[in-house]
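Protein fold
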Amino acid sequence: MTKNAILIPSLALAFIISSCANKTEKEYSTYQGYAQGTTFHIELDGDGDYSTAIDSILQDIDKELSLWDSVSWISTWNSGNSSAAMGLHARRCWELSTKMHALSNGYFDPSLAPLIQFWGFGKSSKGFPEQVDTLMLNQIRQRIGLNKVIQYDSVQGRLLPKIAGAQLDFNAIAQGYSVDALADFFEQKGHKNYMIEIGGEVRCRGKSPQGKSWKIGIDKPVSRNETRALQAIVDVDGGLATSGSYRKFYEKDGLRYAHVINPKTGFPVSHRLVSVTVSAPTAAQADALATALLVMGTQPAIAFAQAHPSLGVFLIYDEQGSWQTWASKKMQAQLSEQLNN
């Protein structure tokens, strides 16, 4: 980890940093490093040194939730050993996931792990299947459905599979949760002004070093080989997350299959909605709902946003070859600038 280093922008969101000449009298500390397979960036009021604490919190979360750690709690559980009691982070992610699963009518579903592996998007990296084995796909779908295939034993504090072969993948909420865990830590220490970002999931509170609201840029949906550009700039007080299908996908027979799986169909999404940004009270909520709305598609996502006006929602979708945008009323109030398509 380095402090006071130059910002490395995240995949989905960029930070709009004002000139240092406009800094307020209050000192801010900057933390930057690599964790959970991505970068993180933190700006925090005060001049204390939390480097060790930040590393410790993120490592503790990985020990429970990392699919890339063969001895983590989740890897152990997925291997068929459900005897281990859940740690604090796993239990909180489970509780949050069940709420987001219900709120999204099942479009957010951490029990998708077997389907993620089937389509070649998981840890095995086996690649997109040359041919879809429909029989195998239908068998795997029987192991999907959060409340249908997994239950929580509150007496022993552990999860139990209802169906053999059920597995978990918290990747669509874990980084947002990690952001919130750091925010909770800083608030317990009395900090009221911060910006925390891990892999594009963000949570902000209070004012930036310039005494202004925190401003986060939303990327245009361009490929990795194209010049990065911004679609909009958002004032953020709370959680913000973007989920996109334009950088992680397979292309086969002229069709593009996103890395996001629809739990209703068992297939990767292939509609024209390519980017969803959600603002919510916490980063975990924003993280989960951005994924759920991306799975839904444009019109269902709009209907969901209108039915939940407390959320800020910004959509980018393809209409006859050009990018179009839609913003909920809450998000319109947050937009400090929307750039040309």
Q: What stands out?
A: The mean pLDDT is 87. The two ends are 37 Å apart (CA to CA). The chain has ten helices and 17 strands.
